[in-house]
Amino acid sequence: MSSDQGGTPAAITARGVSKRYHIGHRARPTTLAERVVQAVRHPFAQEDREELWALRNCSFDVARGDLVGIIGRNGAGKSTLLKLLSRITEPTAGEILLYGRVGALLEVGTGFHPELTGRENVYLNGTILGMRRREIAARFDEIVAFAEVERFLDTPVKHYSSGMYVRLAFAVAAHLEPEILIVDEVLAVGDSEFQRKCLGKMAEVAHAGRTVLFVSHNLQAVSTLTKRTLVLDRGACVFDGPTLDGIAHYRSMQSAHADGAASYAGPASEGNRVATARVVTSQQGGVHVCGRPIQFEFELEIPEPASALCFSFQVIDADERSVCHLWCFDPDTRFRREAGRYRLTFAVPAFRAYRGSYTLRTFVSDRRTWAEFETLAEICPFVVTMEGIERPEYDWDDGTSAYIEDHEWTLVREGSGDAAQKGGFHV
Fold it and tell me: What is the pTM of this model?
């Protein structure tokens, strides 16, 4: 068995690992009739395919008992790397050596058969890991207690919520003693108490001499749990070293991508009412820390006054749900009386959205009829982190409806010399 530079036996050795995918740019036939028609009309046509290197020339060693974080922007190659390490797919080039049994939790449902019950899936996963039935039975009660799914143990897992699915999947992966435990961002599905349990269990697994790879956008969890971190960017491993230095490197990368990251500029066309939009986050690179002040800025082109004109916007999460809705429809709002260009700023002293990726959706509408003059979606992407924040400091709803933040808005008509109008909302 190979060993790392310090003499500790290696659990993982990766050398020059690359993974290539082919992206097709031609619609593929979905039925036999479509296939026949396409063959007759274009008998010699070839599919236009583009090469995409999800990973390129990644090399690293992980010693037995190490707890290593893996961070990077969306699309950096993190999930691809974990699938290669889990033997779900094979590398296009390079070599991966694993010394020990691997337990992986990569996404909701991985390794579970939806038609089987929770009890049956526990034994199925244990068997896949190479364990005997009596070994699984010896840990069965501990797994169920950790997952907190006793009532639903004999229910097919296809009826489980995503949170129940993840609780049971993590409990199985962590308690059936794999030498290497691989955990992706999927833990974000669980509630805060369960996330805390999972982080504690991963630390316990590492202290027992087993190896843990932890992928997360929660930099606070990465810094608390790991001492070493790999940073991926565009398929390459651009940093391998102490976690605090790795997080600093990642933040510098985010700053480098800051231009336009949380801003929008509309096309120069007549009637384009939302001309520009910008989110001023608490950190550079479109990164905002939960609970810190945030500012939303808009420039509006009002071609003609409208007595019931209303502007509002929503903050939309990655599941396309509205989590926050703010508006400006004061009865005496000036842009109902005067055409022109306006600057509208919403200042929120404590923006409480939970960690994740967000965009804005804007509305310019008639408040009497709610007829919409213009709607923009998926603009100004930004990220919320929980770094330095304990979740119990704030209360979140179940994510099914939007809430209203305390805020103040300021409206100024450019070139008018008039005093700014102000308004807002206070709980």
Answer: 0.56
